[in-house]
Amino acid sequence: MANQLFLVGYMGAGKTTAANALSLRTGLPMVDLDEELERREGRSIAALFAQEGEMAFRIKESDLLNEIAGNPAFPIVACGGGTMGNATNVRTMQAHGHVVWIDPAFEVILERLRANPGGRPLLATMGDPFDEEVLRAHFAQRQSAYAKSDERIRDLSEEVLAALADRISRGA
Prior knowledge:
Layout: E1 4-8, H1 15-26, E2 30-32, H2 33-41, H3 45-52, H4 54-68, E3 76-78, H5 87-96, E4 97-102, H6 106-115, H7 121-124, H8 132-146, E5 151-153, H9 158-169
Parallel strand pairs: 1-3, 1-4, 2-3, 4-5
Helix pairs in contact: 1-9, 2-4, 3-4
């Protein structure tokens, strides 16, 4: 039975913010895959990227997703920006819940990332300060992976959050 809500989208889309808001609205726990991975590893995602590389990070991310998917202790899951890039991860999420793509306009993401660029290892590879055109191309590249989601949300309005909270309360 599909009972989890997986929030996916590009870095800066608002996945963790939405997961926290939904957790507060429903009284149900949430988990952020990046935060949980940092806790378990005892280091930041940026440090993990620097020390072991993106491939090692993606393997750890997938392993953690496999552990969390289907676990009723985690009804709300905020995924990392690249989680949907792995087809097995997509199938895992769809088998255990409803996948929601949070997809604000690129300009909104750009503004958020300019305001708070720290701790994002992929952003660091795009120059210092990051190159907007490189970011735009990366954003566009990820769109096809996110399009495999069950639902797409452009704006996290109060109405949208209320509808998602209701869905979670009913078991996704």
